[in-house]
């Protein structure tokens, strides 16, 4: 923690009043300007307001909220970032550039940056500007920030090296730009979240965004493809199912740690049905497998937290899972999707033709990736350059970037940034998981433990998924950066005492202090339940 304080005297009451009047004046002018822009748009397009005008109204109101409280920027980035999907709602503008013609926020072909990136910049401006006005500078680094800087340095090296050796600028930026979101979001979350409830608010925004995406998916499933999954390989983008996994994990973690209020614990599962239907319709084998890994890891946590519940829940669940696999082993249809995912891994010869073809393509692609790495092991080829084709590949030219981006995103990063980038990535991810597991161990239960567990499991699920599918996309990178920011700071925030709430009624019991961090014992005590 780095804190630098100005030693000049505190502002007088009149100076504080003057600053307050200036703040409210600026807010008034901002709202006046916003109203003028919306009114001008309505005059130009006619009444009622066009969808684009409504989109701009929402976006500009969000920008105003960021300047009111920079932390809101993180909430809005995650909410709008996860809500959209290029397949379900190609008009949704947040992760698309202002130059995208189909976007509601299209401005000009020359504006090759996105509303997401502008929100990130505005959040930093609001955060740093507020510290400058208060003449009080504070920066929390945590355990992950230093490694994140080195990791980002190798991304920059891959970008510069690729462009310097003949890489295509547009493709290089397309490949590398989302990866910078990791450190951007990690630093924001680590420094803007200073109360336990801030993490809870963030997770509700995420849950709401996934619920809205689930509703979009439900509409697409019923209206666009008429409930016939054979008409499309997947109804969402590649990584959407991985994001949905976190809603299921969060629901289980909240019940495991008795987080939220009882009402909210009952409300959260009500968000799941449309998300679950969309999740199945995505037909992503990797998402089913990674969710299974997360459930197995949560079972270990359940054994630690509540052994009685573990023995009541897990053996019957295991028997049911085996029966389910046996019944649907040779079946088809939505209910058999998870079993197909398992079959494609443990019994590839028995998988259907589509899954076998997909596996074979990935195998040839991995051989070419391996060949490329051996040609330039230290530096990689860099961003914006094609990987080498030593082995002929099936024609998938319908995918514009097939010669630049591979399904195995772990090896792809090595291929683009070299050995140093690969080793730093592995260390970065491992450090995040280790730090997160320690946080799960030490946190006192309730919301903070549930959120920390969800963050750790998402990182684990994402990088298992990254081994078999494309994962360095815009949405996943803001998600990874945010989850790493949670892991990086949640112990620091939880270490501070929480003020006791006031009793609303005299007959209420006296409030009890919130639990603090649990000391890590010198002797391993896994089998001891949390008090």
List the helices and strands and how they pair.
Layout: E1 2-5, H1 13-45, H2 51-68, H3 71-83, H4 115-134, E2 136-139, H5 145-164, H6 169-176, H7 180-192, H8 196-224, H9 240-256, H10 262-270, H11 272-282, H12 285-305, H13 307-328, H14 337-346, H15 353-375, H16 409-442, H17 446-465, H18 474-494
Antiparallel strand pairs: 1-2
Helix pairs in contact: 1-2, 2-3, 2-4, 3-4, 3-8, 3-18, 4-7, 5-6, 5-7, 5-16, 7-18, 8-9, 8-11, 9-11, 9-12, 9-17, 12-13, 12-14, 12-17, 15-16, 16-17, 16-18, 17-18
In short:
The protein is mainly α. 64% of the residues lie in helices and 2% in strands.
Number of helices: 18
How would you spell out the order of helices and strands?
EHHHHEHHHHHHHHHHHHHH
Name the beta content range.
under 5%
Question: Uncertain runs with pLDDT below 50, 5 residues or more?
Answer: 1-9
Mean pLDDT: 84
Q: What would you call the quaternary organization? A: single chain
Largest sheet: 2 strands, antiparallel
First-last Cα distance: 31 Å
Radius of gyration: 25 Å
Using the alpha-carbon principal axes, give the shape.
globular
- DSSP strand count: 2
Query: How many independent structural domains?
Result: 2
> Structural class of the secondary structure composition?
mainly alpha
Protein model, in words:
This protein has helices at 13-45, 51-68, 71-83, 115-134, 145-164, 169-176, 180-192, 196-224, 240-256, 262-270, 272-282, 285-305, 307-328, 337-346, 353-375, 409-442, 446-465, 474-494, and strands at 2-5, 136-139. With 531 residues, the protein is mainly α. Strands 1-2 form a two-stranded antiparallel sheet. Helix 4 (115-134) packs parallel to helix 7 (180-192), helix 5 (145-164) runs antiparallel to helix 6 and helix 12 runs antiparallel to helix 17. Mean pLDDT is 84; it is low at 1-9.
